[in-house]
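Hi all, a correction to my earlier message: I attached the wrong file for Class I SAM-dependent methyltransferase. Here's the right sequence:
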Amino acid sequence: MIDSADIHLTRDAYDAVAEQYTKLVHRQLADNPFDRVMLDAFAQTVREHGAGPVADIGCGPGRVSAHLAAAGLEMSGVDLSPEMIRIAREQYPDLPFEVGPMERLRYADGELAGLVAWYSIIHTPPQRVPAVLNEFARVLRPGGHALFGFQAADESTGVQEYDHKVALSYRWAPDTFAEVLAANGFHAAATLTREARPDERTPQASVLAVRV
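and the right structure:
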């Protein structure tokens, strides 16, 4: 599975734009209160349920990892792109980051109290998303929490291909994503959908889920 052509294409695409991407997203959290609401709610929820290690899967240059670490979580980050990990390590030397695919995580069964996949599954073909969610469920302890961010589909159900500026991606209707979560070890506890900001082309969504 980790040798799929789309995985190699995504890795190479993000390696090529890592510096530009880092500059582009530098102020996204500071400028977007709705994203911060969901990230901070996730952090509070993890703390209230016993805390423990939290992984940022698809961490990119590490900005979400750093935000959640500042909120009191024990963070580590994983990304497919070696260039993204190089930048994350340079920018946040006190946090551990490593290169790796989300289809096969290094964490032990039930090791994590929380997991963030902030715009991380968007390049995964829909037919492979259940396997990714099963891997996430494996490393999360029962009752652990996962936070997902993604571009929202225009329709109330289904998945749409999206011409992302870096690589082909997929937009999920939140209800459809919640159904896939339910079939693969999770319960969607909260969903936020918002309109596109001026620098965005589509509505956005985030889902806070519980590992059942």
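Sorry for the mix-up. The beta strands are 53-57, 74-79, 97-99, 112-118, 140-151, 159-162, 169-172, 186-194, 204-211.
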